[in-house]
Specification:
This protein is an alpha+beta fold. The chain has 22 helices and six strands. The chain folds into two domains: 299 residues, 2-methylcitrate dehydratase PrpD, CATH 1.10.4100; 122 residues, 60s Ribosomal Protein L30, Chain: A (2-Layer Sandwich), CATH 3.30.1330. 52% of the residues lie in helices and 7% in strands. The strands form two sheets. Strands 4-3-5-6 form a four-stranded mixed β-sheet. A two-stranded antiparallel ribbon has the order 1-2. Helix 4 packs antiparallel against helix 11 and helix 9 crosses helix 11. This is 2-methylcitrate dehydratase PrpD. InterPro entries: MmgE/PrpD_sf, MmgE/PrpD_sf_1, MmgE/PrpD_sf_2, MmgE_PrpD, MmgE_PrpD_C, MmgE_PrpD_N.
């Protein structure tokens, strides 16, 4: 329920987000946000080369675009503000390589970074302003998710799209300096734009969810800035957002008191696949090493997972590379077969590999009560060899890249370099990396955005 100070739920979110500041954070949390920008830029560069991003951008050009004011990442040109956010947001999520957050069970940075870079470029904002805006959106999204999940996610909503739009809109409002009253209306506008179902996981529409969210967050903020109004109780009302999407109205999140960027942080991905596959992939890669890549004698594979792993993943034989990214059997088989899981394993040649198909066919999934309920999709993999009675086993309770097992800065930088390779020059990639790592000192982010074209 809303407090006496804030007569509506949106009023509470608007008041805090309008003054959110990284000045209240420890230095390591600010560094983490900059890493989120760097990682999202990296996966947007690589995702910009996929069909989903190409189709979205091509259609926008076919139907006519406005003034070219914002950079299209990896495409060598600019577009109007909403088109840039749509294309870049779609690219950021195209490979499922973007970061996760455990309470959100979703991808906070793809939508926040894509909307903020486009809007920030148009308004020539400083690096510190864009970091403040990211903080506002992140805290709202994760603070609400901590109360609403897993029930919200289990209802079938793609949280990146449906709840992510609320925080992203607040972040856009913060960036352009809207007063709390206008922010409140922007949140109501965003609530009526929200949509996005998990049934579309493993298709181009999954990536589109992130693009639509980045676009709509800017649109809602700009509409409110022009005086467009929404219902005062669009979030908590009888027919409002929370009751319709979640079936309940959460308590007001304690914004600014227990920062989620510190408490839950971010999960950065070493593999371009669905988050629930990652601990199992870690185990499979370890076992591949023990086998020296020789999978010919494997007779049976058992993967033990937490029940939540099944909420996201697709079963059966994947018919394309997008389905393969959210298929546990495929990700395990490919990791065992090739000893790694990167973009090369998400080609049709890899998907149609005969040994991968054989390994998939002998992989059994089992729900395990022995794995912790920690939100990190823990998994264990047992590999049985012909003529052997004992299995080779590996278990990870949290994947590489999660807060318990963070990737090193060196590995994060390597990921950026790999994603940028062949999309922008090595000189631009290095300059962009150094720009982001010193983002709070930059007076205007325009140069960064233009490097990424």
């Amino acid at each position: 329920m809303a407090s006496e100070k804030h007569s509506t739920f949106a009023g509470h979110l608007a008041d805090w987000s309008s003054r959110a500041s990284i000045g209240e954070l420890p230095s390591e949390a600010v560094t983490l946000i900059k890493r989120a920008f760097l990682d999202t830029i990296a996966v947007t560069l690589s995702g910009s080369q996929l069909d989903s991003s190409r189709i979205v951008l091509g259609l926008s050009e076919d139907i006519g675009a406005g003034d070219p004011v914002a950079s299209i990442v990896g495409r060598g040109r600019k577009a109007d503000l909403l088109t840039a956010a749509l294309a870049n947001g779609t690219a950021a999520h195209a490979e499922l390589f973007d970061d996760n957050n455990e309470p959100m069970i979703s991808h906070p940075s793809a939508v926040l970074v894509s909307s903020l870079l486009a809007l920030g470029q148009k308004h020539k904002v400083s690096g510190r302003e864009i970091l403040n805006a990211y903080l506002a959106g992140f805290e709202i999204n994760v603070g609400l998710s901590r109360q609403l999940n897993p029930g919200y996610y289990e209802r079938g909503w793609h949280v990146t799209r449906t709840l992510g739009l609320i925080g992203a809109t607040a972040s856009c409002c913060r960036l352009i300096g809207l007063p709390p009253d206008a922010v409140r209306h922007a949140l109501g506008i965003a609530a009526t734009m929200a949509s996005g179902m998990r049934q579309n996981f493993g298709t181009m529409a999954m990536a589109l969810h992130a693009g639509l969210t980045a676009r709509d967050a800017i649109h809602a903020a700009l509409l409110a800035g022009k005086g467009f109004r929404s219902d005062d109780e669009a979030l908590e009302g009888r027919y409002g957002y929370f009751n319709l999407f979640a079936g309940t109205v959460p308590d007001l999140p304690p914004l600014g008191k227990d920062y989620e960027i510190v408490r839950s942080g971010l999960i950065f991905k070493p593999y371009p696949s669905g988050a629930p596959t990652h601990a199992a992939v870690d185990a499979a890669i370890e076992l591949s090493g023990k086998l020296n890549g020789d999978t010919g004698k494997i007779s049976k594979i058992i993967c033990h997972v937490h029940p939540h792993n099944f909420m996201t993943l697709r079963e059966g034989v994947p018919r394309d590379t997008l389905r393969a990214r959210v298929n546990m059997q495929y990700c395990i088989a490919a990791s065992l077969r090739f000893g790694r899981l990167d973009s090369d394993q998400f080609t049709m040649a890899a998907v149609e590999d005969q040994e991968v198909a054989r390994l998939m066919a002998i992989t059994e999934m089992r729900v395990s009560d022995a794995l912790p309920d920690n939100g990190f999709f823990p998994a264990a993999v047992d590999v049985f060899l012909e003529g052997e009675t004992e299995a080779l086993s590996a278990r990870y309770d949290a994947p590489l890249g999660s807060p318990p097992r963070p990737m090193s800065p060196e590995r994060m930088n390597q990921k950026f370099t790999r994603c940028a390779d062949g999309v922008i020059s090595s000189d631009k990639a290095e300059a962009a990396m150094q720009f982001v790592l010193a983002l709070e000192t930059k007076s205007d982010i325009t140069a960064l955005c233009e490097m990424l074209e």
